[in-house]
Amino acid sequence: VAEGEPGEGREPFELPRFWDALGQTFQVTSQEATKLSLAFSRPPLPSAEDCRKLSEDVQNAILAVATVYYWLPKGQGTTLRKMVRDATTEVVEGMIQLTDTILNAPVESLSQEQLISTGGVWEACEQVSNLPRGEYNQAAVVSALAACLGVVKDAVEEMEHALVEGQDPYGDIMEDEELGFRGNRDTYWSEADRQLLSSCMGLMKASKACLKKVLAAVKAHGKADSPEQIAQLDDLADIANEISPSVDELALSMYPPVNPLAVRLNAAKLASVLKKVLEIAKTSHVCPPSEEGWVQFLTGAVDHNMNKVKNFTQDQL
To answer: Where's it mainly located (predicted)?
Structure first.
């Protein structure tokens, strides 16, 4: 499941039928996990014949889950397929863990590990109800973009909080006797640092705005009626996934002691990713003429803040 690629299939693919079948197989797997766990929850152990039947039922349930996952053709979009694959892999891994726990547990009583592993399978099986089921790949891309936006929002808020005038960025770390008093330049921002970091904050805020606008555009105009539209949505999700790690890297380099060249490098990486997101959005179907204004505005904002970062670090080169 983790490595394999679903085929295109001979029969016409029907998404509602796929979701129904996937939901049923996940439900059956959850039930089989319960049966297996209960059979080994107290003495006496099941007979050899009962064990054979139990393991057959578990194996059939897992094979059914994998089979239905393989129904989902590539053409439905890589974002949707990755989400379904992750959910399917979690179920299979959960069942492996439960089986291992039962094999290694003492027979006398139901172990804590067995309870946790059984709950893990239930939880993994319930994930199917959280998978985005809207219009093919469009709902999956909306879900992926919303997740990215949440992470970036948190990063921006955290850095804004740390940059409050006069605040010790390491104020939440207890003073260590060995480290001594944190009153040196290694733990505080200079005025020059703060000027540089205000432009970096501009880039981080542009990242948040960029994801917000792309998400709204995909919700309003995103379609999955043709292979081209599906591929464009996948491209947007893929490049948007690069924003959050780039924001994190920039944020980490902004903590004192500030190395201006490291900050400049990470700012340039983030600016490059944002420009790519805006370019992909602009040339895709989610960006009709009515959306071009914000693309232009945000492209200008990215350039403006990156130029300020360059100016502040020019003498470091």
So the answer is: cytoplasm
